[in-house]
Amino acid sequence: MTTTLASAPALRIGPIEVDVPVVLAPMAGITNTAFRRLCREYGAGLYVSEMITSRALVERNATTMRLIRHHESEVPRSVQLYGVDPVTVGRAARLLADEDRADHIDLNFGCPVPKVTRKGGGAALPWKSDLFGAIVQAAVGNAGGIPVTVKMRKGIDDDHLTFLDAGRLAEDAGAAAVALHARTAAQFYSGAADWSAIAALKRAVTSIPVLGNGDIWSADDAVRMMAETGADGVVVGRGCLGRPWLFGDLARTFGGGGGSAPVDATLGFVAAAFRRHAELLVEFFEDEGRGCRDIRKHVAWYFKGYPVGGDIRAALATASTLAEIDDLLGTLDADAPYPGAAAEGQRGRAGTPKRPALPEGWLHSRDLAADAADTLADAELDHSGG
Ligand SMILES: Cc1cc2nc3c(=O)[nH]c(=O)nc-3n(C[C@H](O)[C@H](O)[C@H](O)COP(=O)(O)O)c2cc1C
Questions:
Q1: N or C of the chain: less Cβ packing under 10 Å?
Q2: Domain 267-337 = CATH 1.10.1200
Q3: Which atom of ligand 1 is found nearest the CA of 183?
Q4: Known catalytic membership, residue 111
C-alpha cells in the first residue's frame, strides 16, 4: 500500500513549474524519446534525455541530433549535456537555446566510467572547482534563460568528496537546481546510496531546489527520501526500468494529478507496456529492426518475477519484427497476477566498488593546472553515462 501525500509539493526549476517533484534520471541508452514518452503516458514530472556529448552536439553529429529530438507531447523538453570544456558546453547550450530545442538543460558531472574519469571528466571533474564553476557559468550564460541544473555524485571517493563545494558553486553560478546521486565514483552502483549526503546538501544549498537520487525503487521510497533528507524532489533511474508505470504511482503519491489509475500489473498488462515500448522505439529509430533490437535489453526488467520461460525470454531477445514480438507475447498467460516481491527491488546496474581511474596528479590540487588541459581535451568521448 503506497502512502499518498495530502498536498503536491510542486517543484520549481527556474521558470518551469513541474507538477510533481519527480524527475526521470538521464540514462544513456535508455531515456530516449521512446522511453520518456512511455513514462510520461503514465505519470507527471520532468523527463530528462540521455546524456548528450557537448562536442558532438556542437559538431551536429547525426546520431546526437536524433537523440535531442523530442515528441510534441514532451513538454517541458529536457536535455542533459556532458562536457569538460566551458567553451564547448557554452556553445552547446547556445545551440539548444537559439534553435529552441530544449526547455531545460541538465549538466552531467556524475559519470564514473573509468575511460571518462581517467581523463578528468564526469565525476572526477568537480574536484577542479575552477573548471566546474566555469562550465556551469558558461552553460547558464549561454542558455538564453533556459534553466540549467547540475547532476553530480558525492565525489571521487570518501576521502575526496566534492558535492558540498560543487553544490554551492553551482548555486553561485546560476544553476536552477542541483541533484545528487548519493554515491561516490568509487562506489559505482554498489552498496546503498547515502541519503544523509542529500540532507547535508540540502542544508548547504539554500536558494535553489536540491533533488535526491539513488535507490528509489517504489513510490514509498520516494516519500521516505524526501522526508528523511528534506529534498525538494526525487530523481528516479533504475527503479523504472521495465516499470514505466512507476511514474503513475509517483504522480498519485505526490497528488499532483496527471497520473494514470493504479495499475493491476498482470502479465498481460506488462506485456502490453513492453509492446508499446517496442513500438515507440521503432518509431524513434524509424527502423523496425533497430527498435526491436533495442527493446531486447529491457526484456529481463519487464518480466522480472513473472512466469515467462527462458525460451520465450530468449526468443524476445532475438526477435527482429513487431509481428514476431506479438506472436511471442501472445503465448503468455495474460491473467498471471502481479508476483509481488519477486517483481520488486533492485534492477539495472549494480556492480562492485572500483578505485577510480584519474589523470596523473589529479588529486594534488583542487585547481586545474595548465598542463591538465590536454588531458581534458580527450575526455569528451562517447560513453555510457552516469
Ligand atoms: C544504464 C544507465 C545509464 C545512465 N546514464 C546516465 C547519464 O547519461 N547521465 C547521468 O547523469 N546519469 C546516468 N546514469 C545514472 C542515473 O541517472 C542515476 O544517477 C543512477 O542510476 C542512480 O539512480 P537510481 O538508483 O535511481 O538508479 C545512468 C544509470 C544507468 C543505470
A1: N
A2: yes
A3: 22
A4: yes
